[in-house]
Amino acid sequence: MNKQQLIDMIDYTLLTPTASKEDIKAFCEETIEYGFKTVFVNPYYVSYAHSLLSPHNIKVGVPIGFSLGGATTHVKVEETKEAIKNGAEEIDMLVNLGALKSGEYDVVRNDIAEVVKASQGLTTKVIIETALLTDEEKVKVTELIIEADADFVKTATGFNGGGATVEDVKLLRSVAGDKIGVKAAGGVKTFEDAVNIVAAGANRIGASGAVAIISGGVSEASY
Length: 223
Hints:
By secondary structure, this protein is α/β, with parallel strands linked by helices. Helices cover about 45% and strands about 15% of the residues.
């Protein structure tokens, strides 16, 4: 995999709660400079980022139910609708971890399906926080994501411990098959990490340290 191929796969992210408008502006300028195709910012900054990036055909994505996933389905749906009105073109939602841990699989499936419906055909990814799940739960939630018609299973936010591992990506891909994509986020710190994660089955990578990764350095970011 060469540098350009990796750039094309990365969702560049700036989701720290203290990011200022100037931080977002600098982040967007960096995105344009390096040629990333998609960025993720918190809902408050979607409109601003969209205004800076849309002339360059760069998509703005948004996390929904960030960063714990415990919001009600109604709240996630309304958050999705507003984000789209503000220019969001990709949706990364947090799974309802409490419902999953409780074995309330119909609730989990419906929660995802309603956000997918509200996304109006836009790419939807479901963050499952692999570090907080057993292998059995990882398998089950990936099956629910497929049933709910989302487009990707995503490993983690990077804010709740752990992140993407080769082992987890292999497991998720074994369940996902060719039905949905696998996005690896959290823990990808070097170009070599990215190559190994892609070889394991990821076809999208989320990283706030993307510039360091593609430049041959080491990302110090946790997400």
